[in-house]
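Input (structure):
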């Protein structure tokens, strides 16, 4: 399945989630690309939009390949096989750098004119523009569980079978638009237009 852009994917994902419209639901998006998806879903479902502040840790020799992820106020999530063969000092520094970036973005996105929605005892729909390894999504799930939501649904346009199967063990439901057997090896390969989303765009979307 190929999408025009993130807005197109968000609209299609929202159509799959329409049964949750006007219910006690909160949409949480993974910045930055997932926020465009989240906005479409939140508008369609008449639900508040918030963020899960999370940062991928890329392999030192190929940064696009995730070996772990860090979410605020939670322990990091790692591919244990990959992490075990990396230098522990490098790994600790990468984790520290990720947490510093999360804090800078949290201050930038929220400021004094945006209050994140409460998720306690709510149905949380966690969205992103896709999953590859699934480590970033797993880190996000671990973080939001600390706030005691009633249920967690992960909703993504595309993901491979292994990642979907892994995340299913940690949430109540996973909804994907495309057959996982059709995954093209990278999330961006499923989009005709897949530009970087800026911090300023994220900030503006949260306030629109």
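Output (sequence):
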């Amino acid at each position: 399945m190929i999408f025009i852009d993130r807005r197109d994917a968000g609209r299609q994902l929202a159509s799959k989630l329409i049964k949750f419209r006007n219910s006690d639901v909160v949409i949480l998006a993974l910045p930055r690309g997932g926020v465009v998806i989240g906005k479409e879903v939140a508008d369609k479902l008449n639900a508040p939009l918030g963020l899960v502040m999370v940062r991928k840790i890329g392999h030192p020799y190929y940064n696009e390949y995730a070996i772990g992820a860090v979410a605020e106020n939670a322990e990091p999530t790692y591919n244990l096989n990959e992490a075990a063969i990396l230098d522990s000092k490098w790994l600790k520094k990468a984790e520290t750098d990720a947490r510093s970036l999360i804090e800078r973005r949290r201050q930038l996105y929220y400021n004094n004119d945006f209050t994140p929605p409460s998720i306690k005892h709510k149905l949380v729909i966690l969205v992103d523009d896709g999953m590859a390894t699934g480590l970033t999504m797993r880190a996000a799930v671990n973080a939001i569980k600390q706030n005691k939501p009633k249920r967690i649904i992960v909703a993504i346009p595309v993901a491979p079978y292994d990642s979907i199967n892994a995340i299913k063990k940690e949430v109540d439901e996973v909804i994907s638009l495309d057959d996982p057997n059709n995954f093209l090896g990278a999330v961006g390969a499923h989009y005709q237009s897949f530009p970087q989303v800026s911090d300023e765009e994220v900030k503006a979307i949260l306030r629109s």
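Notes: The chain has a mean pLDDT of 94. The chain is about 40% helix and 20% strand.
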